[in-house]
Amino acid sequence: MTLTGRTLAIKIDVERYERQVLAGMARTLRDNRGIVQIEVLEAREETVQLTTAAGFRLAQDFGPNLVFRKRLRPLAVPIRR
Q1: Are 21 and 60 in contact (CB under 8 A)?
Q2: pTM attached to this predicted model
C-alpha cells in the first residue's frame, strides 16, 4: 500500500525507539502532510532533525511531547476588497 499526497495524523510513543521509527517511515512522512506527535525520551535534537528533514515543522513542544505539522499547499487567504 502506498501513501502519497494524504493528510495523516500520527502518534509515536515507542519508548526510546523514536529515531528508528522515523527512519523506517521517512518516505511516508516525506510524501504526505499532516500532524505527527512524538513522545521523545532521548535524542531530542536528532528526532527533530529527522522530522524536519521530511518537511515537517515543529509546531508545539510540551515535553516530552513534540508536535510537528506539514502542509503541502499554503492555506488560501481570502482577498479583501
Answers
A1: no
A2: 0.83
